[in-house]
Specification:
Helices cover about 5% and strands about 40% of the residues. By secondary structure, the protein is mainly beta. Strands 2-1-28-27 form a 4-stranded antiparallel sheet, with no helix packed on it.
């Protein structure tokens, strides 16, 4: 058994990592995988070196340096790959096994459903299938047993002619709560699940129970990355971001078809969540758009339909976001902002939200190899247990720099 390199999830947004060989500790805070709130930082011990975490709303998959995959957390929706009657919750890391001796190359997780891609391009799905987001040809109910995804499994069954073309393979799947967006190595975008908010990119609101190709705008270029939020989706094409679905409640943030965002800066990466989109430019700037109920845009005030600068005192190398909280990582510092309602940013703080980027004490980038956001959690993979003897708090120098920038820039210059 082997398995996964990288995550998609609204939630579950992750950063590409340069992982060190001696990484072995995983800690997380926020809503516990046992459902309890996050006043404490929890240690996950698999007895092996962990190099990657894929997070759902109340579960997580952990990949070890030896190639093993462990599951942890709730099994309310059979998201751990077994019937919930036989396993209600995995209180400690438990090995994941798939049928037919399938060796896993990648795992992709939504809030409560999962895809696993095998080394021979077999694609299996399990967990919640409320709107047909697993691509199994039907909607509703729970899928406890990992099952081949119709047309994408690499295993032809009956009249299934397959969606992938000869020699074509899947590279990524981004998982929203009720829809999924897949990307092939030829740049084709495949979608399934609910389209009530336009997240599949079709004019009709009718959803799909199997994966189908999204007609890409003529001349728009080849898709390099895909992401899925709660009610919207997106793609990166040649430094530009295309969005479709409900990206926010205000006017100008509802797109039935893939629409290019207006942004003067070229984009390197982006993440999506609950009516939230965050962009990382090639020059290390961070921009955000969408709703701002918990200051998830990185500043106080109303939401915006225009990508607007998040003021940070350092050049950013990678970003991640949960449901309504965000992480930005520079070479030396790790910043967080947005919702802290369940302690997903600062478990020791009574603040319900962090309105501006805050440097998180205890997360030294020299010791931290990866930071991953679950919908309501923050996970850290580090070389040694992190020291949280001091509370997570503002880095005064960094925050003073941000506030000085605010004084120097008038409101209009915050918008690109």
């Amino acid at each position: 058994m082997t398995e996964r390199p990288r995550q998609a999830t609204p939630g579950a947004n992750r950063r590409p990592s340069q992982l060190r060989e001696n990484v072995s500790f995983v800690q997380y805070w926020g809503r516990g995988l046992d459902g309890r709130q996050g006043e404490t930082v929890r240690m996950v011990d698999c007895g092996e070196q962990i190099i990657q975490v894929v997070a759902g709303e109340a579960h997580a998959f952990l990949r070890s340096a030896k190639g093993g995959v462990f599951v942890l957390g709730s099994n309310d929706f059979c998201q751990l790959g077994v019937d919930k009657k036989s396993l209600a919750v995995a209180d400690s890391p438990t090995s994941l096994y798939l049928p037919e001796n399938i060796s896993i190359s990648k795992i992709f997780s939504g809030p409560d459903y999962v895809f696993a891609l095998g080394t021979r391009q077999e694609l299996l799905g399990w967990g919640m299938n409320l709107k047909g987001q697993l691509g199994l040809g039907r909607e509703g109910g729970l899928m406890a047993k990992p099952s081949h995804v119709i047309g994408l499994s690499g295993v032809r069954r009956g009249q299934d002619e397959g969606i992938l073309r000869s020699g074509e393979s899947l590279t990524d799947i981004a998982c929203g709560p009720l829809h999924a967006v897949a990307l092939t190595d030829r740049g084709r975008v495949l979608v399934c699940g609910s389209n009530e908010t336009g997240a599949l990119g079709f004019e009709s609101t009718q959803g799909r129970w199997t994966f189908g190709e999204l007609d890409w705008p003529e001349g728009a270029g080849r898709v390099e990355k895909v992401r899925a939020g709660v009610g919207h989706s997106g793609a990166l094409v040649g430094g530009e971001v295309y969005v479709w679905g409900r990206a926010g409640q205000m006017g100008g943030l509802q797109f039935r078809r893939p629409t290019r965002l207006t942004c003067e800066l070229r984009v390197h990466d982006f993440v999506m969540s609950d009516m939230l989109t965050i962009l990382l430019t090639i020059c290390g700037k961070v921009l955000s758009l969408g709703d701002n109920t918990d200051c998830q845009l990185g500043r106080p005030g109303q939401g915006t339909s225009v990508p607007s600068v998040v003021e940070l005192p350092d050049q950013i190398e990678s970003i991640a976001c949960g449901l309504n909280h965000s992480i930005a990582i520079s070479r030396k510092l790790i910043f967080g902002w947005g919702s802290n309602r369940v302690g997903q940013l600062a478990p020791d703080s009574d603040d319900k939200f962090v309105e501006r980027p805050r440097s998180l004490d205890g997360l030294s980038n020299s010791d931290t190899s990866d930071v991953i956001c679950g919908p309501l959690q923050t996970y850290v993979i580090s070389r040694k247990p992190l020291d949280f003897s001091k509370p997570l708090r503002d880095n005064q120098r960094a925050i003073s720099q941000v506030r000085e920038l605010d004084r120097q820039l008038d409101y209009s210059r915050k918008f690109i």
